[in-house]
Design brief:
The chain has 3 domains: 2-54, Arc Repressor Mutant, subunit A, CATH 1.10.10.10; 64-262, BirA Bifunctional Protein, domain 2, CATH 3.30.930.10; 267-314, SH3 type barrels, CATH 2.30.30.100. Helix 2 packs across helix 3, helix 4 packs parallel to helix 8 and helix 6 (146-159) runs antiparallel to helix 8 (231-252). It is built from 9 helices and 14 strands. The strands form 3 sheets. Strands 3-4-5-9-8-7-6 form a 7-stranded mixed sheet, with helices on both faces. A 5-stranded antiparallel sheet has the order 13-12-11-10-14, with no helix packed on it. 34% of the residues are buried. The chain has 318 residues and is of the alpha+beta class.
Length: 318
């Protein structure tokens, strides 16, 4: 299946005869493989008599060998899928089943991708990056602010492709006010003792606005940069950035990264509303404290907020 995709990923027309010759199969066998791509992976194909078959637009398929080589150099184990329900869920299953950490799961698509507060994370095949890293953390590891540290790593990886991204508390990465990446951390075990943490990262890479319906303002690296992004290069850059920032976080805690995070914070000083279920708190964003909690000025008083069920909105944001 991937052999057919690699031939078609340029987005150009390929005749059934040329595809069959390259694959060493009959045109009938080519037809069956193309039907499988559409049925199993949700891809659509354009067919023109006399010209052949092509994808609606070029793809940048993940190179499993390159990602695996980079992971092995760091002592990580890679598990790769064409499709999985959720990369985070797969890491949690494997760690609970006895697999060793660090464990990296990367997929071409997700059937049940999810973000914070159980929101759906749209995950079409071959378009974006679906990436989860499982780590074993020993007692005393500084968990506070870890998701913000991961945000710095994502921002750095994205910057290598010429995209000026910034951070929004607590787990979003934005470009031009639109979401380009999200982070979901899940913990297994006791926070005060040895535990596993799964760092889930979704980045909108080559998905173009208008191609899918998402219930919030979003963009992609391709839409911002104007060219097809090498998703493998992005995956490797993200792993490199994570290794750097996670090492700093372990050594310094979030306190050592607070200044870097606030320098990248897009809403510093903005008037905002903090939502916790039906409860709304209006105030001015002062930044974050040394543990990553949001500092909000409310009626002249500074208040601190932290927790996974909080949502932050600009006051004029509909």
């Amino acid at each position: 299946m991937r052999e057919v995709l690699r031939l078609l990923q340029d987005g150009e027309f390929h005749s059934g005869e040329s595809l069959g010759h390259a694959l060493g199969v009959s045109r009938a066998a080519v037809w069956k493989r193309l039907q499988h791509l559409e049925a199993e992976l949700g891809l659509s194909l354009h067919r023109v008599r006399g010209r052949g078959y092509r994808l609606p637009s070029p793809l940048s398929l993940l190179d499993q060998a390159r990602i695996d080589a980079d992971a092995r150099m760091a002592g990580w184990t890679l598990v790769f899928f064409d499709s999985v329900d959720s990369t985070n869920a797969e890491v949690l299953r494997r760690l609970s089943g006895g697999s060793s950490a660090p464990l990296l799961v990367v997929a071409e698509s997700q059937e049940s991708g999810r973000g914070r507060r159980d929101r759906e994370w749209v995950s079409p095949f071959g378009e974006n990056l679906y990436y989860s890293l499982g780590l074993r953390l020993e007692a005393g590891y500084p968990l506070d602010g870890l998701s913000l540290t991961v945000g710095l790593a994502v921002q750095q990886a994205i910057a290598l492709f010429g995209c000026g991204a910034g951070l929004k508390w607590p787990n979003d990465v934005l470009v031009d006010g639109c979401k380009v990446a999200g982070i979901l951390l899940e913990l297994s075990g006791e926070p005060g003792g040895s535990c596993h943490v799964v760092i889930g990262i979704g980045i909108n890479v080559n998905m173009l606005p208008g191609s899918v319906a998402i219930d919030q303002a979003w963009t992609s690296l391709r839409a911002q940069c104007g060219y097809l992004i090498d998703r493998t290069a992005l995956a490797v850059a993200l792993s490199d950035a994570l290794r750097h920032y996670l090492a700093r976080h372990e050594a310094e805690g979030f306190a050592g990264l607070r200044e870097d995070w606030e320098a990248a914070h897009l809403w510093q000083g903005a008037e905002a509303s903090l939502l916790a279920g039906p409860r709304r708190t209006d105030g001015r964003i002062l930044g974050v404290d040394h543990l990553g909690a949001l500092r909000l000025e409310v009626a002249g008083q500074e208040l601190l907020f932290s927790g996974g069920e909080l949502s932050l909105r600009l006051r004029d944001d509909s």
